[in-house]
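Changelog-adjacent note: as of this version, every example in the card shows the full chain rather than a window. The one below runs 367 residues end to end.
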Amino acid sequence: MIFKPAVTALAVGLAGPLAAEAIQTSAGPMTAEPMVADLDTPWAFDFLPDGAILVTERDGQLLRIAGDTRTEVRGVPKVVADGQGGLLDILVPRDFATRRELFFTYAKRQGFRGSGTAVYRARLSEDGTRLEDGTTIFEIARGTRGGYHFGSRLVEASDGHLFVTVGDRGDGPKAQDLSMHNGSVLRITRDGAPAPGNPLIGTEGALAEIWSWGHRNPQGAALDASGQLWAVEHGAKGGDEVNRIDPGVNYGWPVISYGVNYDGRKLGEGTAKEGMAQPVHYWDPSIAPSGMTFYDGAVAEWSGNAFIGSLKFDYISRLTGDPLAEVEQIKGDETLRVRDVDQGPDGALWFLSVGNGVLYRLVPAGD
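Full-length structure tokens:
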């Protein structure tokens, strides 16, 4: 394994060096190297072509880290930082170098007390200090209050359109209501319109942005090497799911689930029903899964594997096989409430710990 550091933002925000014990993994002992610290409830990160890192903090801050310089980027949208809502995911699209566009998801005020998942597009200024020409290109249909289940992962499809995950907003039955965006995976254009070819275009009473529905709270999503979309979502008490996301498919929530209500009562009609898809993998007890990525970096043993963060049990889940199944738990003091996971430009696996307020990368111990 040879790592070629493409990012020089080592330990920005740390008061001094951190000593870390090696984490034992199937690919040998690894060290979680701190890259950015002193983060306040971080939610997502992504990389710019010049090697700088962008990190969102849920209360509404966007940070740009370049070398040993940390800048709060101005011009983010006004967010509703309520419960699980706030400034959430960030996407640096493949053509950033030519268009300098960024996309974000956030909780947007809707009506007097409500809020909902929205998508914001803006250009990053040439000096990287502010967002310009920002606009909300999409927001979910109004109808739900409360600070729960925003979903909110953004994925750039192979054709350049955007996948957006939306939670049920704490109102499970709405995940089966096609006149609402709650509990769905959406596919939109970069202007926020329904993407051509969406499965419900022309269906009476259905919203044309919907790609799939019947989801509870999908907080992780990623494309595999073939361009297939996958999502990972929170169940209730048990029943966290990994799903292969196909167009026009109903994934069952809250009619079917492998979990139960938090008070122990049965959910819905059981674990299966005709016309509703089964998860590829599920966890019971729940691990509270979040960010997801498929890996093709410097660790050959992990090529093609999926990695998913656990907020509840403080580890990174490695999944492989057909069907995907958890085969390893990568765990150490650094993996406290893993919110986001991604592959860095250096071929390393990077992850964001909410519990420690640190962005780490995994490198072979001793490097």
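Structural remarks: Confidence is low (pLDDT under 50) at residues 1-9, 14-18.
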